[in-house]
Design goal:
The protein is α/β, with parallel strands linked by helices and 530 residues long. It is 47% helix and 15% strand. About 3% of the residues have low confidence.
Length: 530
């Protein structure tokens, strides 16, 4: 029993409490009851604020002798359930609040919110209490998800997820096979592993859990195929203007014939010089990273990667396309007609086309008729050529989901370029296998990739053959890495909350604990108000 008296006259609510001498104390070592009091002392405990005012509890507790001769303790301080914990100056309720805010908001955010709640605590203290929270006991999952994520520039980590419970298990820095193999050896019993096409993960799973069924994720397979399609579109960039509604698209060769100086512009000379410099380093020292080459040449890493992956220096030249279509284009013919009829007031012309449905600004009309005022022809409407990324997206999109405009442009492009036509057929065949979840045609499809005379697809066929069993499981089964991708999105969120400065131990602590916290307190089911 605890006798309590409350003092609310000061800036903080002071609660004085005293335990009764008639109640026996329980030894914290052996659990035996004792009535033999050694002495008393006062503990000062902080509790959650009341009415916006901090609370301080001054608790007079007893130190008693342990009457059990077998116990190693001679004296012990009594503990009150729900109010005191050994070596702690906060009540369990306030300690739980500090730990929860540390999990949700990390150091600075948690310290700021605690300050609002009249509980002064530094950010380092919040992080200290966060790291003291024990992680949930490790449970061997039946279906394990393995995926990598970017920790910071050039450094990656590995995240393990229980695909059945959708909860993260652990994460570490690096994505090597040895660490994954060690973890699987320490947690035997994994039956199915969902992963991407990484050779390191494949080797680690084979070494640590040889009996586990490996599943190559469908999303990563489709993503890899789309990336190869973009490489093919980049290699055939000269064919892309054929997508425009011009029966005679201008090719790079004809442009150089009409303009002899086009092949000797400063931009082209610069691209050729960089291409030769990058390939001179990559050819003499194979296996070097893009970072080291960039430091040696004084270039950006992305620039080095672009030139190293290109087969010719012409692929690295930035093409100049005609202007983009604007909402004013359908009305240019009407504006030209009205100008020839004698109407030269841009404001009046804007009102006339606004009545016909134009929703643009008057300034656009004024700029459009300026060439006519100087006796020059009005700018003609030219549809720009698509980029390689746009072409890859058109080919990867299901035919019934393409717009009419995209169908027309893609049809003209495929008629002009046999390589892209062959690529489109192969992509649609693989999409049909994914939709039907039938991998019976996979070997024949891989043979077609290898004989397609497209280096990008031939390389993909080789990598799929090395992992064909997992690819077949990814096509035919319902297991995927969707849970992994969702958890990696959460990892990125926690990194941004801590300003990107979280180390791996802190990041692991927050990612694992916050998932269990959300499961314990779902936002969709708030507690009922009294």
């Amino acid at each position: 029993m605890v006798v309590v008296s409350v003092d609310t006259t000061g800036p903080a609510v002071a609660i004085e409490a005293r335990t009764h001498n008639d109640v026996s104390a329980r030894c914290t070592g052996c659990g035996a009851m004792s009535d033999w009091v050694h002495s008393r002392y006062v503990r000062h405990l902080a509790d959650t604020a009341v009415g916006g005012r901090p609370v301080r509890i001054d608790l007079s507790v007893r130190r008693s002798y342990c009457e059990n001769p077998a116990c190693a303790k001679v004296t012990f301080a009594e503990q009150i359930d729900g109010l005191t914990v050994r070596y702690q100056r906060r009540t369990p309720l306030l300690q739980h609040l500090v730990e929860t805010l540390g999990i949700l908001l990390a150091g600075r955010g948690g310290a700021r919110l605690l300050c609002i709640l009249n509980t002064a605590l530094s950010r380092t203290s919040v992080l200290f209490h966060l790291m003291r929270v024990p992680l949930p006991p490790a449970v061997t999952p039946r279906v394990l998800g393995v995926d990598d994520f970017a920790l910071y520039a050039g450094t990656y980590g590995t995240l393990l997820v229980d695909a059945d419970t959708r909860l993260p298990l652990t994460l570490w820095e690096g994505r090597d096979a040895e660490t994954l193999s060690t973890w699987l050896g320490e947690h035997p019993g994994v039956e199915i592993v969902c992963r991407d096409g990484s050779p390191a993960y494949r080797q680690g799973i084979s070494a640590g859990a040889p009996d586990a069924l490996q599943v190559s994720d469908r999303f990563h397979l489709w993503q890899g195929l789309s990336r190869r399609v973009q490489e093919i579109a980049t290699a055939h960039r000269g064919c892309l203007p054929a997508a425009a509604p011009d029966p005679e698209p201008v090719t790079p060769e004809s442009a150089e014939v009409r303009d002899p100086e086009a092949a000797d512009t400063p931009a082209r000379r610069h691209a050729k010089r960089l291409f030769e410099a990058v390939h001179a380093v990559t050819d003499t020292a194979r296996g070097r990273s893009y970072h080291s080459i960039a430091r040696e040449l004084g270039l950006n890493r992305r620039t080095v990667r672009k030139y190293a992956r290109a087969t010719t220096w012409q692929e690295c030249i930035r093409r100049r396309y005609p202007r983009r279509p604007t909402p004013l284009d359908p009305y240019l013919g009407y504006l030209r007609q009205r100008w020839d009829e004698g109407e030269h007031n841009a404001f009046v012309l804007h009102q006339e086309i606004a009545a016909k449905g134009y929703r643009g600004h008057y300034q656009q009309v004024k700029l459009a008729v300026q060439p006519l005022r100087r006796g020059l022809p009005m700018a003609e409407v030219h549809e720009r050529a698509p980029t390689p990324r746009e072409v890859a997206r058109w080919i990867a999109t299901a035919p019934d989901q393409r717009s009419l405009h995209v169908r027309e442009r893609l049809s003209r492009l495929l008629e002009h370029c046999p390589e892209l036509q062959r690529t489109h057929e192969l992509v649609r065949e693989f999409a049909a296998m994914l939709d039907a979840q039938d991998a019976a045609l996979l070997p024949a499809w891989l043979d077609r990739l290898a004989t397609s005379r497209l280096p990008a697809l031939a390389g993909m066929a080789k990598s799929i053959r090395e992992d064909e069993a997992a690819v077949v499981q990814g096509i035919t089964t319902s297991f995927s890495s969707g849970v992994n991708e969702g958890r990696i999105t959460d990892v990125k969120l926690q990194k941004r909350i801590t300003g990107g400065r979280a180390g791996v131990p802190l990041l692991r602590q927050r990612v694992v604990l916050i998932a269990h916290l959300r499961r314990r307190y779902p936002a969709s089911n708030p507690p009922a108000s009294p």
